[in-house]
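__Record contents__

***
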Amino acid sequence: MLLSVTSGHDHSHDHSHSHDHSHSHSHSHGLGGHGHDLRGASKRSLKGALILIVGYMFVEVVGGILSGSLALLADAGHMLTDAASIGLALVALHFSSRAASAEKTFGYRRLEILAALINALTLWLIAGGVVLEAWHRFRDVPDVEGGLMLTVGSIGLLVNIAAARILHRSAEHSVNVEGAFRHVIADLLGSVGVVVSGVLVWAFDWTLADPILSVIIAVLILSSTWRLLGKVIHLLLQGTPEHIDVYRLCSEIEDVEGVLLIHDVHVWSLAQDYDVFTAHILIDPEVRDADRTSLLRRLQRIVYHDFGIHHVTIQLEDSADGCTEHHHVDHLHAHSRPPMNLTLMQKLKKRVRRQ
């Protein structure tokens, strides 16, 4: 028997199934209104930051050429990549909202993760370019106009602070926006370097401060991007979301009356705001067919409401026979709850081995 429960809808479907054990799937698609609000806020934040950055980027290019400052030109170049990164984030945000299709059953949500990955990698390329140019300037130090460099850099610092404030809140909820936000933070650090270099050049005529601070900024950019890159890789590898305790989740499911064991558990994030859960749950064969729907709904409520997981698929089994999935009985059972009756555990293991 196949039972399907969809959160937010008052309907169920019963279909016959040819397998020896019953399958029950609970699909939950929710929190859509909240997610829509977050995506709308993300778009507004990205657009506001883009206007600020593009407008001032041209000022920095002119100022860098007139002053001869590497730090200022590097900051202007990074502003260009800021604009590109925000544009990329906006494009990914737009296409990720497209509906799913038969060819892409999960839609285009992962475009946001790919955009964040591209943004993280371009930051590393920029940092490498700045270090390379600084090396050349250590060998041949050019004249730098400290006063103009200080003036333009100070205005740029204010612009970057404003852009960072605009993006900060949305960056907490979207790895895509966080990628653009990291670009702006790196640019903010660059502006700080420009201001400090300008002061040192203007007050002490110490032109070496320009390439020295450029290298320091490059290192700070790399370190600030490391966390974002790690988060993106974790998402692409379908790692368990940090905010979900899988062992506690399994424990709560196994504590439900009629549930013997949970196995074949998979929890991952399709996107940062969209978590997915699948599992096989072995239930007591004495549970009547008429009670399976209510049991399934109770399990679905635990996963969806208590743990905030958006897409839930649960397969109920009264036997492990015929199940071709790899079972993680010992691993999950050891962590999810205190050991059950030894005789019952041995029976369960025998059922698993028979597959």
